[in-house]
Amino acid sequence: GQWALHLGEQPREVDDEVSSLSVAVAPLSDGEFYHFGTTSDVIESVYQLQTIERDQTRLGPSPSFGQPCQFIQDSDCGVPVRRQENERLWIENSHVPPSWTLHRRHMITNVPRNDWTLELAEGTCLDFVPIADDLLACRIYGYGDAFRGRLNDSQTRWMERPAAEWFERRGIRWENAQLDPTSDLQEAAIFAALPSEAWSGEFVQWLIGQGATNETYCRQWTAARRFSARDLAREANLERTYAQRMQFRQEAVPLMARHGAQSVFYKLDLDAAARTFATSDNALDDLQSPADDVLLGVHCCMFRSAVRRLRGDDAWDDEEKLAFLLLEKSIVAPYQRHPVQPTCRLAEDQIVWARSPLRIDLAGGWTDIPPYCLEHGGQVVNLAVNLNGQPPIQAFARRSPERSITLRSIDLGLRQELRTYEEIGDYRGIGGGFSVAKAALALCGFHPRFNGQAYASLAEQLEDFGGGVELSMVAAVPKGSGMGASSILAGATLAAIAELCELGWDRREITYRVSAVEQMLGSGGGWQDQFGGLEPGAKLIETEPGLSQHASVRWLPIEFFTNHALASRTLLYYTGIARTAHDVLREIVRGMFLNDPHRLDLLRQIGDNAKACFDAVQRADAQCYASSLAQSWRLNQRLDSGTSPPAVADVVDRVAPFAEAFKLAGAGGGGFLYILARDDDAADRLRHDLLENPPNDRARFLSMEPSTTGLEVTRS
Questions:
Q1: CB-based contact 447:497 (threshold 8 Å)
Q2: Residues 110, 190: Cα–Cα separation, whole Å
Q3: What is this structure's pTM?
Q4: Helical H runs in 501-580?
Q5: From CA 445, how far away is CA 344, in angstroms rounded?
Q6: Residue 150: C-alpha distances to residues 156, 185, 228, 298, 330 (Å)
Q7: Which of 33, 707, 53, 7 is nearest to 357 (CA)?
Q8: What confidence tens digit (pLDDT) does each residue in 488-542 have?
Q9: What pLDDT, on the 0 to 100 scale, is given for residue 25?
Q10: Pure H helices in 619-703
């Protein structure tokens, strides 16, 4: 209470440490203030926060648009709650059995388990405060009480009536209660504390009711150890309060989970809810995934998985796999429902050639990953780039006289021949030499799942097709580059096969189908890689919440990146350290499924930064662009602690003195480092330093040029 005395140019009490502090005023855009001073303030402010989102389309399957001003949390409430009759109701950490009667404007907190019969008049509030190990104080007050003023002042309100009236109606004299009538209500010892088992419904009703002389209760109240409101704040045994809260929560969470499809349960912090559930004796058997809602289903499976993992149940991994499988089915199933029939009209000597640039993600990466983008939408700014003067991802397709499908990887030096549907269907799992090609072939109709089971065998289908298929691919980029090579290779491969087979898919259709390929492979990636590489230039890609994820693309001026002032100090450096994003992705996606508030907040900031980056490039503001790039790197590190492992950190430490901003491409942890040097001289000195003393034998600089074409497909 003495802090303010030290403030100002001429403080009443001088404190050297306080006087040494500086003062700054920071304007907050779209700032709002929520007050939590009075009982009414608490309920009104929480209601405003709960209904802050007015766009019902963004609230998911269980919107809170029509949320009544009623809040029940960590409680066992057996009283029917009605919207009008029980308006402005707060029940927390309490047992309210069916024998209670409630009206309007109540705050009921910390009530222990009981079998009392009570009627709370409108505006009555009830709070039980544990004292020491065995006492329980009953704090009664009115919804609109200010809780200040002398006891005998007619303007002082307690239970929303003149305070002295409470004592008069019960026949309690000031001297008998050892109360000074001129003392402040906040300081008066008016709250009785009894052993927990001594409380009865009749005594509580006498305290909160209209009041009547009852010598037994009067003596009980007068003789009891009593506390003031200020005393209760000091003496409360919070451990007992938290223990009761946890017990109620353990009982409430399973009930909420069973009704999750009709409530906001699956929008809660499911990791915290799983910890509560796991410490209880409740079984998971009654908790079934909603069959008609994919997102609720995946949340349910991941919640079950989290509970099993916390309980040491080995079946947690199966539950988690089921969550990813449900997500995969939701993305892949539409293509199974609309089968395709590949046909070939190309001459025997014609070759289809598809080639595509890679992408550098500048801001917003991770917001494109399901389920985050499905529930919140995604925003990514990225740039399509060629390396060393050529598009690094290329695929070639032609018809062959053999009744088989031949796959070749130029960069891996591998070759495989496919003669059965089973071999094509063996695409699951990333890391295989031809997983991407097999999944692409299946999606293009060379598998019963996607051709409507039109043929009994692959040989029969190829006979009808007029021959076999030769498919050659090259990814002229190091593995684990972080530049979306796997997804973009899937896009180029799909494009080559689609052109060969007269499927008539345009660039956007191919882009959407890459997401299906990623799910089929089990890598579970997002959509920014394929949009970034297959679509030309620099752009902001945005999606709205929903399973369809149809993206809108807003283009940025490519001149910003090709202008000498920026291009001359932009470097692309391969760290020589490869990293597979799959395991990282699974861990972060798990946090998305479980509504991890820390991760969701970071993802929101990442999305906001994408918009800031887009705005900076539109305004040709190189300084703001550098700031957003640096913010991307900071946020990525906070989202994933593995973004900068020791080997990468060593490279980053060497780059930092020369750079205005930098970030690792993609998920980080290795791959390419995109650098914006401080100036041309810093760029030259950094290049010289890393060329003379590379961190490893694979590290090197590559030239990078923005691509103005994106995916190209031509025939010979």
A1: no
A2: 18
A3: 0.85
A4: 507-521, 528-534, 559-562, 564-567
A5: 12
A6: 6, 6, 13, 58, 66
A7: 707
A8: 999 999 999 999 999 999 999 999 999 999 999 987 789 999 999 999 999 999 9
A9: 87
A10: 622-639, 646-655, 680-692
Quick check: 519 and 328 in contact, CB under 8 A?
yes
Task: Calculate the CA dihedral of residues 703, 704, 708, 711 and round it to 10 degrees.
Answer: 90
First to last CA, the chain: 84
pLDDT at residue number 258 = 85
**Where does the pLDDT of residue 60 fall: very low under 50, low under 70, confident under 90, or very high at 90 and above?**
low
**At residue 401, what is the residue type?**
P
How many Å apart are CA 300 and CA 256, to the nearest integer? 12
CA distance 531 to 555: 12
Helix, strand, or coil here: 578? coil
Map tokens 């498919």 to a residue: 471
Tell me the β-bridge partners of 468. 400
| Domain contains 599 | yes
Q: Dihedral sign, CA of 594, 271, 591, 636?
A: positive
Instruction: Determine phi and psi for 682, rounding to 5 degrees.
Output: -65, -35
Q: Cα separation of 631 and 642, whole Å?
A: 17
- Give the largest CA-CA distance in the chain: 111
Joined tokens for residue 520: 């089929």
Q: How far is CA 212 from CA 225, 255, 642, 668, in A?
A: 22, 41, 69, 73
**Which pLDDT value is given to residue 54?**
65
For residues 79 and 208, state if they share a domain.
yes
The CB-based long-range contact list for 642-646 (8 Å cut-off, 24+ gap) reads: 642/584, 642/668, 642/669, 643/667, 643/668, 643/669, 644/668, 644/669, 645/577, 645/669, 645/670
User: Are the beta carbons of 519 and 527 closer than 8 angstroms?
Assistant: no
Distances in Å between the alpha carbon of 623 and those of 36, 612, 620?
A: 41, 12, 9
Asked if the structure places residue 162 within a domain, the reply is yes
Residue 518 CA to residue 535 CA, distance in Å, equals 18
Map tokens 């089921």 to a residue.
322
| Among 74, 95, 93, 88, residue whose Cα is nearest residue 46 | 88
Extract the tokens encoding 188: 């008066």
CATH number, domain of 571, equals 3.30.70.890
- Taken in order 652, 658, 660, 666, is the CA torsion positive or negative? negative
CA distance 390 to 703: 10
- Residues 323, 294: Cα–Cα separation, whole Å: 9
Confirm whether 397 is domain-assigned: no
Q: Nearest-CA neighbor of 269 among 242, 309, 320, 306?
A: 306
Domain of residue 128: give its range. Answer: 66-236
Q: Is residue 411 part of a domain?
A: no
What is the C-alpha to C-alpha distance for residues 561 and 613, in angstroms, rounded to an integer? 13
Report whether 236 contacts 198 (CB < 8 A). no
Number of domains present in the structure of the chain: 3
Instruction: Work out the average pLDDT over 198-207.
Output: 97
Q: Cβ-count burial of 300 within 10 angstroms (0-12 exposed, 13-18 middle, 19+ buried)? A: buried
User: Pick from 185, 205, 236: which residue ends a domain?
Assistant: 236
Same-domain status, 261 and 191: no
- On whether both 222 and 249 belong to a single domain, the answer is no
For residue 296, give the amino acid letter.
L
Residue 89 and residue 223 in one domain = yes
> Looking at 313, 343, 374, which one is the last position of a domain?
313
Query: pLDDT tens, 397-421?
Result: 999 999 999 999 999 999 999 999 9
Q: Write down how long the chain is.
A: 716
Residue 579 pLDDT > 80, yes or no? no
Structure tokens belonging to residue 423:
């071999």
